[in-house]
Amino acid sequence: MGHFTLLLQVENYHTRVLERVLQPRGFIFFPALSGFPSCDLSDPLMSYQVSNYEEAIQFLFGRINYERASAGSYTSNDLKLNRMETLLERLGNPQQRIPAIHLAGTKGKGSTATMIAHTLTAAGYQTGLFTSPHLHRFEERFVVNGKLPTEEQFVSLVQQLLPHLAAMDEQPGQMAPTYFEIATALAWMHFEASQIDFVVLETGLGGRLDTTRLCDPLVTVITCISLDHTHLLGETVAEIAAEKAGILKRGVPLVSGVRDPAAREVIHSIAEAQEVPLVELGTDFHIDSAEIQFDRTTGFRGQMTLRKIDGETVILRPGLPGKHQAENAALACTVCNLLNEQGIRIEPEHIEAGVSQVRCPLRIELVQSEPIVILDAAHNIASITALVETLKLVPAEKRTVIFASSRDKKTAEMLTELRTGFDRIILTTFQSNPRAVPLEELVSLAETTGFVEIGLAETPTAAWEMASANASPSDLICVSGSFFLATEVREHLQSLSTPTDLNVAQPVPDLNQT
After folding, report:
1. Model-level pTM?
2. Which of the residues 151, 299, 435, 469 could staple to 53 if both were Cys, CB 3.0 to 4.6 A apart?
C-alpha cells in the first residue's frame, strides 16, 4: 500500500460520527471531541463490514473527500474519470439506461436543477435529483420525487457497493474511489432501483472531470460563469467556462444562462466544435421583466415575464427568493420546453407548479421574522452580490451579518460586497470542515474592507448568540459566506425550535424526514 495521509475531524452530522479522510500528503490530525464514537485507526482502510446506518455513514466518511480537503492539498490531476468509469462498469452502467438533464455553473445550478425536477414530478414522471453537498443527511444528495431513501434502503445500497469497492481498493497503483465518486455510484444505484424515468444531475465541481459527466443527457445546462474554485478550474472566467463546458455532448442541446462575454465566446466555440444546438438567455429567450417584493409575514414573492424561444410570453412566479431566481426559472422553463419538443409531455401548468412550489434551504432562506433572520449558502462573489441586492428590499433598523469562509474562496472580495449591505459583522469559523479561514485572518480582511463594528465568535453557535442577544424585532440578521456555516447555524436553530414556537415565515421542507 502506498503513502497516505490521515485527516481526522468530527463530521457535523446527526450521528456525530468521527470522520477520517485519506489524503495523498503527510499526516494531519484535527482534534477529536470527547463523547463521540471512535474508529480503529490501525488500518488505513476502513472495514468493509456494514450492518447498520451509522456504520454505513462512517464508512463513507472514511473515504478521500475533496469537499473537505483544503485548497492546495489536491489538484485537477487527482480528479479523473477512470475510477468512476470502472466503478459504474462493475455496476452494469446504470447511467446509460436513465435519461438525464445535466447542469453545471458557478451558481444557480442547484436551484435550477430542483425546479426542473419538481416540474418533471408535477408532470407525473418518476424523477431523481442528484445535488451536493448535503445539509443534514447524506441521503439528501439523491432523492426521488423529493423523498429521501430510507435508512434501510441506504444501508442496502452501501452493502451492495462494498464488494466492488473492496476489489478496486486492492488494485495496485490505483487510487481508491473517493467519497464523491461513491456518492454518485450510490445515486445511480438508487435511481435504477426506484425505476425512475429521468434524473436531474448537478455537477459537483467544474464539469469536464466531474463524475456526473458520465451520464446520457437529453439536455445540458450551464447556468452562469464567475470566479470560484480558481485553484482547480482556472483564474479567468474563460478558463472556468472551458471546464464547465466539459459537460457538453455531441448533438445534445445546451441551454445557457452565461452572460460574461469571454465565457460566452468559449462556450460558443466548444458548442460549435461538438455540433451542439445552443440556446442562450438574452439571445433566444428573454426575461422581459422581473420583480420581487418582501413582506415580513409571507417573505419574498417574485414575478417575472419570460419571452420564450417561440416568442410567446408567460408569467412565472419563482418560489425561491431573489431577482437572480428569475434567470434560474427562465433556464428551467426553457429546458422543460425543449424536453417537450423531444416528446416528453410537460404542460405549462407543470412548469408553473415546478417553478413556484420549489423550496431550497439556504437559498436566502427566511427562518424568522422578528428579528428577520436569513440563512444563505452564498460562498462566491456573484452569489454574495445577489444576496446583498435582494436584501436591500428588507427594511431593518440594524443589519448584522454572521460570516465565515473557506480558504479557497475570494474572501476579501466577498467581504467588500457585504460591507455595502450590513452595519455590523460577526466573524466566526465553522466546525465541520478544516478549510475554514482562521479568525485572525478574517479580522484583518474585514478591517481592510471597511467594517468598523466587528464581533468575534469561536463557533457559529456563539456567533448566533452574540447576534441575537440584543436584536430588536425590526433588525436583520443574515448568515452567509459558507455552506458549512449556514448549515451549522440552521442545525442550531432547529435544535432550539419546537412546532409550537418556531417562527417560520415561509414553509421549508424538513429534509430530515424519510
Report:
1. 0.79
2. 151
